[in-house]
Write a structure and sequence with these properties.
The chain is about 40% helix and about 15% strand. It is α/β, with parallel strands linked by helices and about 375 residues long. It has a domain at about 80-215 and about 290-370: Rossmann fold, CATH 3.40.50. Strands 1-2-4-3-5-6-7-8-9 form a nine-stranded mixed sheet, with helices on both faces. A hairpin with a 5-residue loop joins strand 1 (about 85-90) and strand 2. The longest helix has about 30 residues, at about 20-50. It starts with 10 loop residues before the first helix and ends with a strand. Residues about 1-35, about 280-290 and about 365-370 have low confidence and may be disordered.
């Protein structure tokens, strides 16, 4: 029998440490564990994010993130005879509830949009203030909020259908002057307003503290929750907290997949992209005329939705030649522009509405209100 030559091991291969295959296998198992863990976190996160009628647990939020819905200025609400309850549906059959505060004579109508895990009740002071200045006001609860239907909330994507229904209802009210509807949104409500396709009758949008990309906010939320949950960790576990940003990124990425499978909708709402140039538009002038004027309001040191989001939205509007004005207030509170200087806020909003109704707002895109 022919004797076979012994297998020769290359010199560089002979120097491979014995622990390397074990480490490689360990890393593979670790990667699988991280992936599985991210998927499990994503399933839980989507469940909590979309859970309807879940009030914001302020005890679990940092004090500087809480929104000061207690307005410094209180205006009287209209008499009961001029308030009426509303029950209406979206095109997809989701039942919504709201209120319409009517002026004694026809006037422009402001549609107010609340934030995530809030309700129209929190906006009653703002509604009373705007009513006092001569506007009809329509307040409503988004799906899964307040008194509206027990439907999953999406943080902005599906809520567009709710806002479309509210705007259509506002136009039907006999006290609403034709083609004189203004949308005023806060936080998620502001982002939803920016996501809204062009609507007949809407002449202006006031967006107070919207996000530019929801995925960035979700990563911040997950990172903050993981940071709080691991704050008490001691050595040798404490160094593991360094991977929280990576876990947050992986969880949000997996959450988008889970969300699409469960609801058939994307999770990543991106209001900044609503200003992008669309095919078929022949000139920048036609692009500008196709957009409703926007007043973008933001606190310069907002700890929840950083000012960088507002700047992204403003930059996107500038690139698209869309009519957008900015009002950035010195405040370190989310939706804190009003509380920082109520009179300046009111003046900025009323001036923008007046110019929008006259067709003069936003002629110089992305200008700062001073």
């Amino acid at each position: 029998m022919e004797e076979r030559s012994p297998i020769t091991i290359p010199a560089h291969a002979a120097k491979i440490p014995r622990w390397l295959p074990v480490a490689a296998t360990g890393l593979g198992v670790t990667g699988l564990a991280v992936s599985s863990g991210s998927l499990a976190l994503a399933v839980r996160f989507v469940r909590e994010l979309s859970r309807p009628h879940q009030e914001l647990d302020e005890s679990r939020m940092p004090p500087d993130v809480l929104m000061p819905w207690t307005m410094p200025i209180t205006s009287p609400e209209p008499p009961a005879a001029l308030q009426r309850s509303l029950l209406f549906q979206t095109k997809r059959g989701v039942e919504l509830r709201g209120d319409f505060w009517a002026q004694p004579r026809p006037a422009p109508t402001i549609v107010l949009c609340h934030g995530y895990r809030a309700s129209r009740a929190r906006l009653r002071p703002a509604a009373a203030l705007e009513y006092e200045h001569g506007f009809n006001v329509l307040l409503f609860d988004f799906r899964g909020h307040g008194e509206s239907a027990h439907a999953e909330t999406t943080g902005g994507i599906a809520e567009v259908y709710d806002l479309e229904a509210a705007i259509a209802l506002a136009a039907e009210q006999p006290e609403t002057l034709p083609n004189q509807i203004i949308v005023h949104g806060f936080s998620m409500g502001a982002a939803t307003a920016l996501l809204l396709p062009q609507q007949p009758g809407v002449v202006a949008i006031i967006a107070d503290s919207p996000y530019a990309r929801l995925d960035d906010i979700l990563r911040r939320m997950i990172g903050w929750q993981l940071g709080e949950g691991t704050a008490a960790w001691r050595s040798p576990l404490r160094p593991l907290r360094r991977v929280i940003p990576a876990i947050s990124w992986a969880t949000v990425t997996a959450s988008d997949v889970v969300f699409r499978v469960r609801f058939g909708l994307p999770l990543y709402a991106r209001p900044a992209s609503s200003f992008q140039l669309k095919r078929g538009w022949r000139s920048k002038r036609s692009v500008s005329s196709s957009h409703v004027p926007v007043l973008l309001i933001h606190a310069t040191r907002d700890p929840f939705i950083p000012i960088a989001h507002a700047r992204q939205i403003a930059d996107a509007a500038t690139r698209a030649c869309a009519p957008l004005e900015t009002y950035f207030a010195e405040s370190a509170i989310h939706c804190g522009a009003f509380a920082s200087d109520p009179q300046r806020y009111i003046t900025a909003v009323l001036d923008f509405i007046r110019r929008s109704l006259a067709g003069e707002a936003g002629r110089s895109p992305s200008t700062a209100w001073r």
